Amino acid sequence: MKGVVLVDDHVLLRNGLAGLVENFGDYKVLFQADNGKQFIEGMQQYAAPDIVLMDINMPVMDGYQTSLWLKEHHPQVHVIALSMYDDDTAIIKMFKAGAKGYILKDCEPSELKTALHSVATKGFYYSDMVTGKLIHTINSSDDDGNQSGDTVRLTQREIEFLKLACSEYTYKEIADQMFVSPRTVDGYRADLFQKLDVKTRVGLVMYAIKNRVVTF
Predict the structure, then answer these.
(1) Which residue has the higher pLDDT, 24 or 89?
(2) Number of domains forming the structure of the chain
(3) Angle at CA 210, nearest 5°, toward 158 and 165?
(4) Which residue of 100, 110, 149, 175 is 20 to 30 Å from 121, comparing CA positions?
(5) What CA–CA distance (Å, rounded) separates 46 from 147?
């Protein structure tokens, strides 16, 4: 039985999630919190959970700050980010803060169950927002240290672009950092989308994390 904590300032949604999680049968909700500050206080009263379902936008202490606190003080606790947003910036920030999964609040219960199971057994969950070859790479049981770089050859400039894509820079700011035109950066992005078989900036970030191009 895995211990789960829900951190979300929407009480009705949180209570509904708590009931849903416990109905899955393999999880026990240890406690709930309105925000990160209340969650940290709860951590002093209860055993550390296995998984935290973490809202991003909360008053007092948001999901980014709370995930960073967990990453520093309880790195064994896995965070699954909950959000109404599927934009690249929010997803990248949460993964940089230590989240192991990211799901939308309007997802189907089956996806929540899959996310919990995946994080509990594998330590991570990447949804359909990350597609194609990347999912195959991430879910591969071959964890012998071989990197996809063995089969996907990247130029030094592509690697430089990939590292910058994992930051919060806009593509225009990345162009400035690389001293090239925005059109050149668009070319790097298009080439990497094709080489890595991904469709979004999030896909690039997940590839970079998996292949240790960057570490957060």
Answers:
(1) 24
(2) 2
(3) 40
(4) 149
(5) 39
pLDDT tops 90 at residue 87: no
Average pLDDT, the chain: 84
Residue 165 within any structural domain of the chain: yes
In tens, the pLDDT along 156-166 reads: 899 999 999 98
User: For residue 181, which amino acid is it?
Assistant: S
Three-state DSSP class for 8? coil
Q: Choose the final residue of a domain: 78, 99, 129.
A: 129
Instruction: Give Cα separations from 121 to 57, 70, 100, 155, 176 (angstroms).
Output: 27, 19, 12, 35, 42
Q: Which amino acid is at 113?
A: K
Domain region containing 111: 2-129
Within this chain, do residues 41 and 97 fall inside the same structural domain, yes or no?
Answer: yes
**CA–CA separation, 73 and 48 (whole Å):** 11
Which CATH number belongs to the domain containing residue 91 in this structure? 3.40.50.2300
> What is the CB-side half-sphere exposure of residue 125 using CA atoms within 13 A?
23
Name the 3-class secondary structure at 13: helix
Verdict on whether the full-model pTM lies above 0.85: no
3-state DSSP assignment of residue 16: helix
Same domain, 58 and 91: yes
Question: 94 and 56 in contact (C-beta within 8 Å)?
Answer: yes
